[in-house]
Amino acid sequence: MKPKKVPMRKCVACQEMMPKKQLIRIVKTPEDEVLIDLTGKKSGRGAYLCGKESCFKLALKNRALDRALKSKVSPEIYEQLAADFIAVEDEFIAAQGREEDE
After folding, report:
1. What are phi and psi of 31, to 5 degrees?
2. Measured between alpha carbons, how far is residue 85 from residues 6, 52, 67, 89 in Å?
3. In angstroms, what CA-CA distances link 14 with 43, 51, 55, 93?
4. In angstroms, rounded to a whole number, what is the distance separating the alpha carbons of residues 60 and 62?
5. Does any domain span residue 3?
6. 14 lies in some domain
7. Residue limits of the YlxR domain (predicted)?
């Protein structure tokens, strides 16, 4: 039987290719709202980040999300994403642990 193909995505900050499930998706919805999408299924333009805070800080410094989402991301949205990212980081790590157990 043929092994199942694992979709790969690139972190916009560190440029490392990783399986899609190991990355956090930031999405710009059609209503121009920028938010974290843990499901990976919200409609809109997406950008992927490693689950590490250091990658988020690098993306902030390099304005990587601006380029990936093809629009200007305001400082207020970066601040909100930073707060959300820290809150989501623990949940994301726990979800990865559950997947590895299966």
Report:
1. -90, 15
2. 25, 9, 19, 6
3. 24, 11, 6, 19
4. 6
5. no
6. yes
7. 9-82
Overall number of domains in the chain: 1
Range of the domain at 66: 8-99
Q: How far apart are CA 91 and CA 56, in angstroms?
A: 16
Q: What is the pTM of this model?
A: 0.79
Quick: pLDDT tens for 79-90: 888 887 777 766
Structure tokens at 101: 């157990």
- State the CATH number of the domain containing residue 37: 3.30.1230.10
How do the residues of the chain divide into helix, strand and coil, expressed in percent and rounded to 5? 45, 25, 30
Per residue in 31-63, pLDDT (tens digit) is 988 888 888 889 999 999 887 778 888 988 999
Please indicate, yes or no, if residue 49 is contained in any of the structural domains: yes
Query: What is the C-alpha separation between 37 and 24, in angstroms, rounded?
Result: 7
